[in-house]
Amino acid sequence: MARSEPVRNTYEEFADEMKQLMEDSKNKRGQIPKSRQMRDALIQDHEWHLRFLHEGVLQPRNFILPPPYAPAQLEFSKARRVHIKDLGISSRNSEEAILLRTLTDPYVYSSSITIVEDEHGDTARLTVCNLEDSMDDPVLSKGLVLAVKQPCWTAAPEAGYHIRVDHPSDLVILESDNDRLPEAWRTRVGVEGTRTVTKFKQEGDMLFLKKKFRSALEKYEQGRLLLTASSDTVAQVDIYRKRCGVNVVLLRFDDAAEDLAQAISIHALSDSAVEKFEVTTPSAVREWLHNGSKDDSLQMASILPRSLKDLAARIKFDLGLYQTSPDYDLPTISAYVGPLTLHVDAANYLSDVEIKPTSYHGRGLFAKRDFQAGDLLMAEKAFALPGYFFNDRSSDCALYSLGDGTATDRAGALLFKELVQKLTANPSLRKGFFDMDDGGYWAKNGWEVSEQDDIPVDVFRIEHIRRRNCFAAPLRAVDVLTTPTSVRNGFWIHTSYLNHACLPNSVRTFLGDILFLRATRDISAGEEITSQYVVPELTIADRQQKYKETWGFECDCRLCRADSDVGVEVERERMRLFEELKATAQKLGSKPTVTALKKFARRLRDLEVIYSKEAYEHLPKLCLVHPTIFLAEAWRGLNNVEKTIEYSTRLLRYFGITIQVDGNVFSVLENCGLINVECVRALKYLAEGYKSKNQLETASSVTSTAQVWYRIITGADLGSKEFLQ
Ligand SMILES: C[S@@+](CC[C@H](N)C(=O)[O-])C[C@H]1O[C@@H](n2cnc3c(N)ncnc32)[C@H](O)[C@@H]1O
Fold first, then answer.
1. 148 by DSSP, 3-state: which?
2. Which ligand 1 atom sits closest to the C-alpha of 533?
3. Pairwise pLDDT comparison (420 vs 156), residue with the higher score
4. How far apart are CA 426 and CA 383, in angstroms?
5. Which of 468, 493, 544, 553 to mutate to test the pocket of ligand 1 (most atoms within 8 A of CB)?
6. What range(s) does the SET domain occupy (predicted)?
7. Domain shared by 577 and 608, yes or no
8. CATH number for position 507
9. What's the pTM?
C-alpha cells in the first residue's frame, strides 16, 4: 500500500515544530501512547522516506537538541531491562535500558532513523541523533542488535511517537554473539574455513577505497581475530597498520595509537636489527605516541619502515605535539594552507604562557616571561576545525538548541558534530575539553566524575562549551584584509582560556588550523593575556548586551568603565553626531571637494569636544575612528601630504595609540593594544607622507613598525610588501 498523499518529509524535523510538539506532550508525560503505528505501517512509511531521501529535493540539515537531559550513567549490563510496551512519553529513567534489533536499512540525513523490534516482536521507530553516520556506510545497518539506555517515547511530527536518542553514548551496539542477547537473536559467527587474514584484508582494502571506512574496519577486525601467535608477522603488522589507517580517517586516534603500538612492537620483535633499541613493548610505544614530545627517545626513525613512521607522525600530530620555541617556518606554512589543506603539521608552542585563576574572570592565560609588541605568545593547533567547501550546498545545516532557544549556522553546527565525534571516540582527549568553561552546566545537570572514571560525553554540555569557547576562523587571517572572507568555527583549547578585554594585549590569527597569538603591546611576565572576543560595539549598552548574551559576563575594562561614566545623554549625542558624519561621508563619496572636507573636519571637531574629558586622555575614542579614516583617505586622495599625516596621526590616537616624530626619530609613546588593519594603514599613509617630504629615515622607521603590526594582525609576513607599498 502506498503512503497516503505525503506532503513533506516528516523524518526531517524543524525547530519551531519540535518546540510545539514538546509543549503539547508535557501533559502526557509518563503516559503510554494511546495508539501507535504497527510493524507493516512503520516499515512502509520508512521505505517511503528512504525513497524520498533518494529522489526528493533535500533541504539543509537541521540538527535539533531538545531541552537537556544527562546521558545514562549506568552500564547497559547493569541497567533494568524494559520493553517497548513499558515506555512512557517523555519520561526517561536512567536505570533502564531496552534491547532492540533493526529491521530495515537506515535513513541517514539530519539524524539516523530505522525501524526496530524488541524481544517480543513489538516495533517502533528509532531516531538516533548526533551520530557520525552515512547512508553509504551506515552505523545502524539492518539486522543490528543494539541497546538503548534510558529509552522513552518522544512526540514526532504528524502525531506519532518514536524512541529518540540524543547522546550517542546512550546507544550500545552489541556483537551478535553476545551472551546477553535473546537466544533467537544470537548468531555464533564461526569464520568460514576459506576466509583467511589476507582475504579479509583485501575485502577491507576494497571497502576503504570505496570510502566505506566503518565496514573496512570491521573486515580488518575480522582478519585480526584470525591472527594467532604463529601467524606470519608481515600479515600481523599489516592488519594492525590497516586498522590504524582507517581509525585515523574516522578520527579515532586512541584506537589508532593502540593499533600502531601493536604493529610497531610486532615489527620490532621480528626485526633482529631492532632488539638493541629495547623498544618492544606495546605500552612503551603507546606512551611514546601519546607523550606530545618531538623527541624520538625510542629511536623510531631508525627502526621503522616508512609506512609505520608516517602513521606515527600523523597520530602524534593529531594527539598534540609540543615545542618550546616560538620558531615556525611561516612562509612554508602560508604557502601550504589552502581550501584543500587546512590541517598543518606543526607542533604547539604553549610553554611561555600558563593557565591560572584570575581575580574576577575565572581562569585566565598569563605570560610566563616578558614579551614585546609583535612577539609570538603562543601557537596552537585546532582541537577541531571542520573542513568543507563554502559553496557546497550538501554541507548546509543548522543546529537548534530548544532548551535555551539558540540557533547556529553551518559553521557552528559542523563544529558541534565534529566535537561529538572526536570526544566520543577518544577518551584521552576528553579531560582537556571538558575542563573548559561550560557556564555551570555540568555542575547543575551532571554528577561528580572521579579521576578513574570515563568522562561522560554529554552533547548538551558540548554545545554549551562550544558556544562559549569556539572561535570564528578564516582560512588565513591575511585574506580578511583584502576580500570579505567566509569563516569557519573552530576550537583551540588553550586559547580558550583567554579572557576578553576591549583593550586587549594580544590578537589571534590563523593559518589553516594553527592559531598564532601575538602581543599587541609589551607584556610583562605574570601579566594576564587578554584578547577581544568580538570588536567592541560603539555604545556601552550594545557592547555589554553582546557579551552577556553569548558569554554571560559584563566587561569591566578601562574603556567600558569610562564609557559607562559619561552617562546616557553624552553617549546619545556622540552617536547622533557619529551617524550624521557617517551619512555625510557616504554622500561625499570617494572624491570630495576641499571645501566639503573642511566642513566635515569642523563637524568632527564637535564630536572631538564631547570626548575631551580627562577620562579619555589615555583611551581610544571609538566614535571618532570612522570619520577620521574618511578624512585621512580623502586628503590622501587629494595628495595633501600634511593633512594625510595629521589625520593618520589622529586616527592612531583615536585607537589609543600616541606616536611622536622628533627630528627623524619616530616612536610609539602609548599603545592601548588595539592594533588592527586600520592602524597598519595609518602607518602606511604616514610612511608615504614622510617619504614625499623627503624624511626618509622617519619613513623607514614608520614602515618597520608597520611591518611588525602587519605581522601581528595576519600572523605572518605573507603579502606585507604589497600591502605596505
Ligand atoms: C572562553 S572562557 C575564558 C576562560 C574562563 N575565564 C574560564 O575560567 O574557563 C569565557 C568565559 O570567561 C569569562 N570572561 C571572559 N572575559 C571576561 C571579562 N572581561 N569579564 C568577566 N568575565 C569574563 C566569562 O565567564 C566567559 O563566559
1. strand
2. 16
3. 420
4. 12
5. 553
6. 351-534
7. yes
8. 2.170.270.10
9. 0.92
Q: Report the domain count for the chain.
A: 4
**Does ligand 1 come within 6 angstroms of the Cβ of 553?**
yes
Averaged pLDDT for residues 643-660: 97
Q: How far is the CA of 88 from the centre of ligand 1 (A)?
A: 41
Q: How far is the CA of 621 from the centre of ligand 1 (A)?
A: 25
Burial of 525 (0-12, 13-18, 19+ CB in 10 A): exposed
Atom of ligand 1 nearest to the CA of 498: 3
Question: Residue 468: CB within 6 Å of ligand 1?
Answer: yes
Dig out the grid coordinates for 320 from the structure. 598534540
Percentage of residues in the chain having pLDDT higher than 90:
75
In this structure, the answer to whether residues 252 and 367 fall within a common structural domain is no
The residue type found at 552 is: G
Alpha helices in 470-524 (DSSP H): 479-482
Kindly state whether residues 177 and 277 are assigned to the same domain.
no
Name the closest-CA residue to atom 11, ligand 1: 551
Tell me what the mean pLDDT of segment 291-295 comes to: 88
Query: Would residue 22 count as lying in a domain?
Result: yes
Question: What secondary structure, in 3-state letters, does 513-549 show?
Answer: CEEEEEECCCECCCCEEEECCCCCCCCHHHHHHHHHH
| pLDDT at res. 476 | 87
Which of 185, 215, 233 is the last residue before a domain boundary?
Answer: 185
Q: Whose CA is nearest to atom 27 of ligand 1?
A: 551
Strands (E), 505-630: 506-511, 514-519, 528-531
Domain housing 160? 15-185
Per-residue pLDDT band for 717 (boundaries 50, 70, 90) equals confident
* Distance in Å, CA 501 to ligand 1 centroid: 10
Q: Which residue has the cell 529535493?
A: 57
SS (H, E, C) 648-694: HHHHHHHCCEEEEEECCEEEEEEECCCCCHHHHHHHHHHHHHHHHCC
How many C-beta atoms lie closer than 10 Å to residue 353's C-beta? Answer: 24
Q: Is the CB of 528 under 6 A from ligand 1?
A: no
Using the mean position of ligand 1's atoms as its centre, give its distance from the Cα of residue 442 in Å.
17
Contact 496 CB / ligand 1 (< 6 Å): yes
The answer on pLDDT for 270 being more than 50 is yes
Ligand 1, atom nearest to 501 Cα: 19
Tell me if 552 CB under 6 Å of ligand 1: yes
Residues 419 and 507 placed together within one structural domain of the fold = yes
Q: What is the rounded average pLDDT of the residues 102-124?
A: 97
β-bridge partners, 73: none
Residue minimizing CA distance to atom 9 of ligand 1: 437
DSSP secondary structure string for all residues of 214-252: HHHHHHHHHHHHT--TTS-HHHHHHHHHHHHHHHHHTT-
pLDDT at residue 279 greater than cutoff 80: no
pLDDT score of 28 more than 80: yes
- pLDDT for the residue 273: 64
353-357 and 363-367 strand pairing:
antiparallel
- Domain final residue pick, 153, 185, 217: 185
Tens-digit pLDDT profile for residues 74-85:
998 899 999 999
